Amino acid sequence: MASKLNISCGTCGYEDISKNAKKWCTICEEGFCGECEKYHKSMKVSRDHKMISTEDYRQIQNISVNFNCEIHGKKLDLYCKKHDIAVCVVCIPSEHKSCSSSDVISIDEASKNAKQSSALLDLEGTISATIDNVKHCIKNREIALTNVDQDEQTIRKTITDTRKNLNKYLDELERKLLLDLKSKHKNRKSQIMKILNQLKQMEQEVEKLKEQTLQMKRFASDLQVFLGTRQLNQSVSKQVESLKEFARVFRKAEWK
Ligand SMILES: [Zn+2]
Ligand SMILES: [Zn+2]
Ligand SMILES: [Zn+2]
Ligand SMILES: [Zn+2]
């Protein structure tokens, strides 16, 4: 930002008079009031000095241009073409000993038409290319910012959907298992009931055989007992075999 402070006339200031400057001499680097500017122009030594308005000076006063040599502190009065560098008088014998006299020219000559120079054109080109690059990078990161939001939403949705699908799968699995359990329970129960009935029937039959044996022993002849014992034994053996078969079925028919 250009300073809003008033620039005072240097010449009047030298006479302890405070007066605002209207113009700025770029060579003397001093402000001039209207009166003093006339004198400045009338003198041969300063007639060709480039004057600019104080408004224009405010635009450039914040531009940091160093007019002195950073090493020696002297004014940068010369320019070496070979090294493309502005130098002071002390620089020449030390750093530019081998540079020819035609390489080293006055800074005034070197800076003539600087506004049309390719160096300024290059600088402007580099600046505008840099601005383009920065803008491109900003655009790129703005797109990335949008993408990162979209990605987050997509992944969030995937997580939610996966959770829903898992719930659905587990519900379905539970339903199937319960259905299966119900049918197995029914089968198993009816199987046990069936065997239980058969066993009860067997119990009655064996009880009957016991009764028959008892009666035979009490009332039958020896021949009857002889034949009856063998026949009853066959019947009992059949029942024993059936019982063994049942025991085998019990072991086999667990929850399957
Ligand atoms: Zn003045
Ligand atoms: Zn001047
Ligand atoms: Zn120097
Ligand atoms: Zn040089």
Automatic annotation (TrEMBL):
Annotated B box-type domain residues: 69-107
InterPro entries reported for this sequence: TRIM45/56/19-like, Znf_B-box
Stretches assigned to coiled coil: 156-219
Protein name: B box-type domain-containing protein
Classification via Gene3D superfamilies: 4.10.830.40, Classic Zinc Finger
Keyword tags: Coiled coil, Metal-binding, Zinc, Zinc-finger
Molecular-function GO term, any one: zinc ion binding
The keyword Coiled coil belongs to this UniProt entry's keyword annotation: yes
